[in-house]
Amino acid sequence: MGKIDAAEKVFENMPETDVAVCNAMIKGYSLSAKPFEALRFFYKMQREGIEVNSESLLNLVPAVSKLASVRFCRAFHGVVTTRGFSRAVLNGLIDMYWKCGDVLSARAVFYRMCSRNDVSWGTVMEGFVSNGWFGEALGLFDCIKRERLKLNPVSALSALLAAAEVGNVEKAREIHDYFVRVETVSDIRSFEKAREIQDYFVQSGIDSDVDRSSTSTSYRAGIDTDTYWCSR
Fold first, then answer.
1. Where, in residue numbers, are the PPR repeats (predicted)?
2. From CA 230, how far away is CA 232, in angstroms rounded?
3. CATH of the domain spanning 116-210+224-231
């Protein structure tokens, strides 16, 4: 019997449940191979009058992302809109939309946010690059530079990969120099790097702190986004 099956048995025998217990079940289903069960639990909470909170929605993010359904994303968006949840939940919504390929909706959520943090910027930039919207990603970098923001390594890698994809050596140099200046590049060492970026640096002669010894071919390698959203 797997851990989620054992958790189901315990849950079924509980005389009473509350939001914390339901959130734990949603998280378990989201991180397992049962994303539909996570959704079922979420709607079960609402039917039984258990008030959902930000943790409920954050735990649901991996499940909706795995289903890659725009319909479920929009239903999730509707709950967020009517209840007015936190910035972390909105960041999760952006992540879900771009994983479903709905880049326009992800972009709309980002630009309508009243307050953004480094996760907001990194998530939307990564989404643009993963969906081939390289010009949009580079445009966001210009905003980052203009506002002198110090962001996380995901933003740096996204901007660099966008420049590599469009073959803009000067832009890549500008991006690299900026993130060195704001001390972001030193943090990139903790990530598996994309081969595209490594090759681009070698070909363009840009002297980067990016470790070229990595053999990763996956842009997202080393970032477990499912666990990440459930831990926010």
1. 18-52, 117-151
2. 6
3. 1.25.40
